[in-house]
Known about the structure:
alpha+beta; flat
Amino acid sequence: SGDTVELTIENIINMFKERYPTLTIEIRGDNDKIKIMGKDGESFTEESVDKHIYINGKLELIIECKTYLDKCYLQRACDDFK
C-alpha cells in the first residue's frame, strides 16, 4: 500500500541522515505547498505530494508514494513539475 512506500522512503531518508550527519535533511509532505511556475514566470498553482525532501533548506527531491500510477496521471505529474 501507499503507507508501506511512505515508510520505506522515510527509512531511506533516515539512513542518509545517519550517514551524512553534517547535512540538514528534512521531510515535509501534504501541508508543504510548492509553487508551480508557468512558462512566463508567473506562479499559477501550488501543489503538494507525499514527500518533499529538503537538504540544507533547499528542495531537492519530490516523491509521490503510490503503489500504482496510471499513464494519464504520470503525464499530468510530469507536466505539473516541469
